[in-house]
Design brief:
single chain; 151 residues; alpha+beta; 7-stranded antiparallel beta sheet; 4 helices; 34% strand
Length: 151
């Protein structure tokens, strides 16, 4: 029975990876257009939201193109990742903001996810539970940036 479950999990993982390649997306990555922001909000508010979720900033680039990348944050795998055989998971976020309509920046967020199955980390297609978690962070960033624009 265990061999059947291992084979089924491996088959499911391969199918998910193939689907990601077929769709042109990167396995384990999600992205959102989170809105427009002033230069200050694009830099400061994005970092504020990422830190609220306990992400440490690994690198930051200032205008004219704003770029923020977090360190990988280890976490316990979600139940649907465990069902795929994951024993550990890690996530990071990347924010890119480019000058759009003056004086605002268009802000994009990308979440990357990896799980450890066996001895190494692998990117897999975003599971529904990871998608819910990442969507929550993206929605909070969208709301914070929208509040800044309304001022």
């Amino acid at each position: 029975m265990t061999k059947f479950i291992d084979r089924a999990a491996a088959t499911l993982i391969l199918a998910l990876l193939a689907a990601a390649c077929a769709s042109g997306g990167r396995a384990g990555a999600l992205s959102w257009n989170v809105g427009e922001a002033s230069e200050t909000d694009a830099q400061e508010k994005t970092i504020e939201v990422l830190r609220k979720y306990f992400y440490e900033i690994e690198r930051q680039e200032d205008p004219p193109s704003i770029y923020v990348i977090t360190r990988w944050k280890s976490r316990h795998p979600f139940d649907d990742e465990i069902a795929l055989g994951a024993v550990e998971a890690r996530t990071r976020f990347i924010v890119e903001a480019r000058r759009g309509s003056q004086p605002l920046y268009t802000v994009r967020l990308r979440g990357e996810n990896e799980v450890r199955i066996g001895d190494s980390f692998e990117r897999i297609e975003a599971t529904p539970e990871f998608r819910t978690y990442a969507d929550e962070l993206a929605e909070e960033l969208r709301t914070v940036l929208l509040m800044g624009i309304r001022r």
